[in-house]
Amino acid sequence: MWKSRKIFYKILIDNNLLLPNKQACLEQLTKLGINYIAHHHDPVPTMDDVVKIQVTNGTAYVKNLLYVDKKQNYYLILANHTTHVGKLFWKTLGLSSGNMRISKEEQILEALKSSKGNVNPFSIANDSNNRVKNIIIDEELTKFQRLALHPIENTTTIEISLADLQNKFLKALNRQSTIAKLTDASAEQQLQQLKQYQNDQQNLQTLAITVKKSDFSEWYQQVIRKAELIEYYDVSGCYILRPWSYFIWEQIQRYFDDLIRAEEVENTYFPMFLSAQQLNKEKEHVEGFKAEVAWVTKYGESDLNEHLAIRPTSETIMYPAFAKWVQSHRDLPLKVNQWTNIVRWEFKYPTPFIRTREFLWQEGHTAHFTKEEAVKQVYTILDFYEQVYGELLAVPVIKGIKTESEKFAGGDFTSTVETIIPQNGRGLQGATSHHLGQNFSKMFEIKFEDDKRQKAFVWQTSWGLTTRSIGAMIMFHGDDKGLVLPPRVAKYQIVIIPIINKDLDEKHLNEKCEQIKQILIKQKLRVHFDNRDNYSPGWKFNKWEQKGVPIRLEIGPEEFKNNEVRVVQRFDNKKYQIKIEDLNQLNQILDNIHNAMFQKAQIELKQRIKQADNWKEFMAQLNQRNTILTKWCQREECEQQVKTKSGVESKEKDSEIDGQVQLTGSAKTLCMPLKQDEIKEGEKCFHCGHQAKRYVLWGRSY
Questions:
Q1: What is the mean pLDDT of residues 167-180?
Q2: The sheet that has 273-275: what strands, in order across it?
Q3: Backbone φ and ψ of 610, nearest 5°
Q4: Which residues form the Aminoacyl-transfer RNA synthetases class-II family profile domain (predicted)?
Q5: Angle between helical axes of 216-226 and 468-477 (0-180°, round to 10)
Q6: pLDDT, tens digit, for every residue of 393-404?
Q7: Which pLDDT value is given to residue 198?
Q8: Does the pLDDT value for residue 659 go beyond 50?
Q9: 526 and 75 in contact (C-beta within 8 Å)?
Q10: Sign of the dihedral defined by the CA atoms of residues 158, 161, 167, 170, in that order
Q11: For residue 473, what is the DSSP state?
């Protein structure tokens, strides 16, 4: 530790400044034996910006004020950010408040070689002429373990103890400090301010995500709870969808309903129960769901004469009615859809939104005169699903066909939209559109008289999209702070937060915020004005960031004065000012945010797709959490061998490589992409060496 100011000044550099930048400051703190916690961030020139920085519990945000008197003597005040600095304390120091003024920009430069927004106690080291006569410390700061201060530059905040600031840093400069009561408020008012601050700090600790997104499983569980998407329920695998997530589902419903209405699909509703006899009518179909079917066997204390299954899907519920409704070719096409719940008693570990025992979905069912009409319907719906993911959720998908072993049980072929979660490389089936052929129509006698008076069976499709789509959105876009919502599905696209200040009448500020809200509502934007007075602006910033609101509008004294708002974008943390008369720009800004989110997600998805020409390359990419595109023979025997062999070899690998936990488990086919290069004669399957027929995507999946 330096023993005197003379030693302290040995590091004079650059324009004779002792501490010209934050790097020099941090180096000197280390040399002085001062422990600190550093937070690096964008510039925070105002106190409103400072309080958005998440600091540890027990740390006070400090506002630094430089005063100057008529004799050009300077006084640096360090105050708790909630303290209203009064005038009476000057008298206790033998000074007159009437002689004191807040320093101007040029005076800050003269005294501390600093600037407005960068005033801090460490810049005292640059006051070689002793212009600062006293450093006055708010007695409220003595109640905290640490102080949040800028080390010369406001692009970093450090947490240090008051004792280290006084007894090590200031002492090394031979500078004295004075502890003083700065507020003119009563003791009761001060206590109330302190309690509010401590309450905010406690709430922020509870609010914050405590792990990084790299700890993906725990991160996901925290985000869905703390963003108020999910509430847990006492039946395993079943969850409560809170309003914040159900609104997303409602947006999906509205969007998809508009698309299928253009296809003349009508919404309907069918019962949730079906008899065992009806369920077992299509044997191949029921085998695909048999292990997941939940049964009702009692009512009250009595046994049911016939056990009732709770629908795992609705083909066998709907199609007896189809057989009644379709008699002539004039009754075709028949197109219906229902929004409902499904129960599949999964045995795997449930994951909210992704794999649950009860979930919400839409299921569409159509009957057609010809096979060509049915096939066209399959791919039209598949395009709609791609639009839901891309245009609403900003999630990219890959359109493809399922292999024979992965297709819908009882169907002719299954088309699918698949995506890949960038964080762990797992595939996720987004939605499926099935061509059922005439399999079900023959089983349920859905036949009609054609235009030549001949009896014929209808050609059918079925297709479904579930609340799993919300899980994909969360996983793609969320970050270390929590949820990031695409603007088109956010319940609130914009939240308005007033920055209360003693120099600004609260009533006038709230009126301005309400005025802005009404302007935005007229632009058909979804807006919330958070005027709660029991939470600080900093707490509100963190809360709405946690919930993923796309845009935050801040209005403080400067914004009020200049008739503008400060815009903060959740997706990329971009910050800028907009005049109130230019608020009509926000619709375009929200569209730009959506497009940027989608482009980022597209890049991340493509980075997870690798090609392999042989087994060694295949396993190397699989163990690096990638999805692999290979040439394939399309033989079910080969597919099963790949699944079995990859599972065995995965278990033999180390569970941790380069400090990262590795995924284990079998690879399966995700889909054969619709867009793919032609396979030429002589090109071989990557696994068995037979003639390749198609490219296929393999990966571990949810």
A1: 90
A2: 273-275, 302-310, 294-299
A3: -125, 155
A4: 248-486
A5: 110
A6: 999 999 999 999
A7: 58
A8: no
A9: no
A10: positive
A11: H
Report the C-alpha gap between 124 and 9 in whole angstroms.
12
- Distance (Å) of CA 237 to CA 115, 194, 297, 312: 57, 43, 21, 15
Q: What is the dihedral of CA 88, 94, 100, 104, to 10 degrees?
A: -120
Cα separation of the two ends of the chain: 57
Between CA 519 and CA 502 the distance in angstroms is 27
CA angle (229, 231, 234) in 5-degree steps: 155
- Per-residue pLDDT of 510-551, as tens digits, reads 999 999 999 999 999 999 999 998 888 888 999 999 999 999
Return the residue matching tokens 């695909």.
Answer: 288
Q: Are 230 and 352 in contact (CB under 8 A)?
A: yes
What are the C-alpha distances in Å from 169 to residues 1, 10, 176, 337?
10, 15, 11, 72
Both tokens of residue 149?
């201060």
Phi, psi (5° rounding) for residue 348? -75, 170
Decide: 669 and 634 in contact? Cβ < 8 Å: no
Exposure string of 662-699, with b = 16+ CB inside 10 Å and e = fewer, is: ebeebbbbbbbbeeeeebeeeebbbbbeeebebbbbbb
Residue with tokens 């449930």: 350
Compute the residue count for the chain. 702
CB neighbour class for 157 (10 Å; exposed up to 12, middle 13-18, buried from 19): buried
